[in-house]
Fold this protein.
Amino acid sequence: MSEPQKPKDAQLPQFPDPAQAKPAVPVYECRIILSKQPIEGVYHARVANVEGLSCQSANPRSAMQTLVGRFKQLMAEHHQEGTPITWIDPPEEPKEGERKVFIPVHL
């Protein structure tokens, strides 16, 4: 049995040139520190690796959602403008009664 013949103008599939490929989507690590204030009954949250991002909320999930939204907006602004991000280095560590949460944020 003979092999099927390929048309003369048939070419192998072309793959994109990695040098011409679009850059990967940036991913940033949002480190959140959460604590519950027993008297107030609210959760306080702050970003441990970027200055000035904090909030209060009735539950930890909404606190993290709020901070991730603010963090993502800030990272997008820096990315679009090409300005450096001022990281807290080393990041803040949780104190007694606090916990740290790591959330990857894609732009």
User: Anything to note?
Assistant: Residues 44 and 56 are 5 Å apart (CA to CA). The chain has a mean pLDDT of 87. The domain at 27-106 is CATH 3.30.160.250 (Double Stranded RNA Binding Domain). The beta strands are 27-37, 42-47, 54-57, 98-106.
